[in-house]
Design a protein that fits this description.
By secondary structure, this protein is an alpha+beta fold. It has helices at 9-16, 19-38, 46-49, 73-80, 82-91; strands at residues 51-57, 62-68. It is elongated. This is Putative bacteriophage protein.
Length: 92
C-alpha cells in the first residue's frame, strides 16, 4: 500500500499569505533589485531606471518579481545576464 498525505490547505494558505512571509519575499526582491540596478550597464539610464518589483498573485500566495520595463531589457539581459546575476546574488 502507498502512503497518502493530506495537507491542510487552509493552514498553508494562511501561512504563505502571512505578513512575515510577504515581508521576507519583498526583502529578497528588494535585494535583487538593488543589485540589478547597481550593476546595470548605463548608456541612457533607461534600462536601469526601468527595473522594478512587481507583485504577482497566485492561487495560494503572492510572489515578487524583478522585471524590466525598458524596451531594451531583453537585449541588455541577453548580452549581460544582469538580472540572472542579480537573482543569484539575491539568494546569498
Amino acid at each position: 500500500m502507498g502512503v497518502m498525505v493530506k495537507f491542510n490547505d487552509k493552514y498553508f494558505d494562511e501561512l504563505m499569505n502571512s505578513a512575515g512571509v510577504k515581508a521576507m519575499t519583498r526583502r529578497a526582491a528588494e535585494k535583487t533589485l538593488a543589485y540589478a540596478q547597481s550593476h546595470a550597464p548605463v548608456d541612457t539610464g533607461a534600462y536601469r531606471d526601468g527595473l522594478q518589483i512587481q507583485e504577482v498573485k497566485h492561487a495560494h500566495r503572492t510572489t515578487c518579481m524583478v522585471v524590466g520595463t525598458d524596451p531594451k531589457t531583453l537585449l541588455v539581459e541577453s548580452k549581460t545576464g544582469n538580472l540572472r546575476k542579480a537573482l543569484k546574488a539575491g539568494k546569498s
